[in-house]
């Protein structure tokens, strides 16, 4: 499903947080229920789980140098991170989304609706996977217990990775349950939409989604002796078939009493009014600028992803170039910054690049080349649909099949198995994963290698305490610092170089 109503879960799941048991069984307010059926809980679990990654991307868009600040100011593009940068990454996993999964699973098991149990496990796995990839060690074995334990211990990331795979396997098995064994349909449209707002009850797509997540996580282990590219390839084959399977959120105009339903990158939310595009991403797309990654090859995605007149800048460097277009920052004139655009969690084109990398490492250059080129084509086709948008007033060009074919035949793309390198795969994946926090995982796996990512610039004004190293993790969320300080202290997060310490999967 390509679209669903953002924050529908917020409207439907007002009772998802567990309440205290009443000491009197009288005066119950029928308009303020303390229980709910699974179909009214799942929308909030899905939408908030996706928003977890959306809010993380406000920080990682700068670390990965898709965006930079116009004016230096000891901010994220200079690798100055705070606990506040991580609060939503943690809270959306443990409170707004994952924290409500046990309540929904209990209700679903009681009424015998295993599809809802499966969906809950898959989304919880997604929440934990993203949180651990951004933060490292996490609470799980003692988490989600409510008042029984407000200060859970942190489990090692290796253990969290195993838990994610187990949850996804369990979710897949439950999604294979016959529909006749489910008390409640996974998607309900009458009297109003509820339940599975992601795939509208298509359990096959849920299974492909779970396999996509499994493939992504296992492909993170490229530095480990246990890395198995054949296993990754098997999972990719069982995952998304095309871009119609993409797991993504569709933003919408806010309808009272809801607010904040437009794009986190859009002009209405105003998160990037002080930002512009990095020289790094511009050099990948513009074949005419000095230092262009692909000299002489103008990428047809350029006028869609980035305003044509954007000159960009490097992190920590004051830009004197005009970057106001249509009266707002040039950042807001890109396809990804449409107020009513989308946010992608995991996509078909990402899976194609995962396949290309795994096949390359497995020695199957034929499959690697085919998948690499398919990833480029899929991304171009997805964002090249054209359209006119009012806020700001931008008309995006289409990308024709002929343009895609011409780009695939250009010097920007490897033409033969002999030409194909990891650099080819990762630079095209970097373009296609624009603004997605998963790009940070790739940069870390390849150690920000300048032979693979030649246009990355270490920020001017980065803290001396980092010793010239790149960030490898975010700080613990501010709520954990306040309410679970002993567990946070055990992480050693107060050290000046904490954010440069590699995660478990980022080490041999």
Description:
- Residues 1-18 form the signal peptide.
- InterPro entries: SusD-like_2 (IPR041662), TPR-like_helical_dom_sf (IPR011990).
- Keywords: Ligase, Lipoprotein, Signal.
- GO terms for molecular function: ligase activity.
- There is one protein chain.
- By secondary structure, the chain is mainly alpha-helical.
- The chain has 2 domains: 1-15 and 38-66 and 81-201 and 465-503, Serine Threonine Protein Phosphatase 5, Tetratricopeptide repeat (Alpha Horseshoe), CATH 1.25.40; 249-461, no CATH class.
- The chain has 17 helices and 10 strands.
- A two-stranded antiparallel sheet has the order 1-5.
- The model is unreliable at 1-26 (pLDDT under 50).
Number of folding domains? 2
> What overall geometry do the principal axes of the alpha carbons give?
globular
What is the residue-mean pLDDT, rounded to a whole number? Answer: 93
Helical residues, percent: 40-55%
Q: Measured on Cα atoms, how large is the radius of gyration?
A: 23 Å
Instruction: Tell me the strand order in the biggest sheet.
Output: 1-5
Our count of helices gives: 17
Order of helices and strands: HHEHHHHEEHHEEHHEEEHHEEHHHHH
Reported for the largest beta sheet, the result is: 2 strands, antiparallel
Secondary structure class reads: mainly alpha
SS elements, strand count = 10
InterPro entries: SusD-like_2, TPR-like_helical_dom_sf
Pfam family, one: SusD-like_2
GO molecular function, one term: ligase activity
Keywords: Ligase, Lipoprotein, Signal
